[in-house]
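STRUCTURE:
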């Protein structure tokens, strides 16, 4: 494979990795928002008295729900979100490492192309 073809291929791979990284960052941001929202709900639950009624929205309808069940659901959701955040963090780290490796490969190929264009004595080749 020629250097130019390798450069194109490595560049396409690098751009793909950058897009994956961007998508993972967006997913991480969405999870952060969900985490904050659910922590706020959990905080609100601490202010409830046993006499307070909790409702859960199912579609367009509010349905009465037991406080304990609602609190349990929020805790499960928080655990799930935290697990997803850890998974996304690992994914971000992995993509970052692959990206750095691919960037090094790109620099190496570009250096080889420049050296080839300069010729064996270091002088530019006349076209």
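SEQUENCE:
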């Amino acid at each position: 494979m020629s250097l130019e073809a390798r450069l194109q291929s490595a560049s396409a791979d690098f751009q793909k990795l950058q897009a994956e990284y961007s998508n993972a960052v967006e997913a991480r941001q969405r999870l952060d928002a969900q985490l904050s929202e659910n922590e706020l709900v959990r905080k609100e639950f601490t202010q409830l008295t046993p006499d307070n009624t909790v409702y859960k929205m199912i579609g367009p309808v509010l349905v009465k729900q037991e406080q304990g069940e609602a609190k349990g659901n929020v805790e499960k959701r928080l655990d799930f979100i935290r697990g997803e955040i850890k998974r996304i963090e690992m994914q971000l780290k992995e993509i970052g490492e692959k990206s750095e490796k691919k960037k090094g490969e790109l620099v190496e190929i570009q250096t080889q192309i420049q050296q080839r264009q300069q010729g064996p004595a270091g002088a530019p080749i006349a076209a």
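REMARK: The helical segments are 3-46, 67-118.
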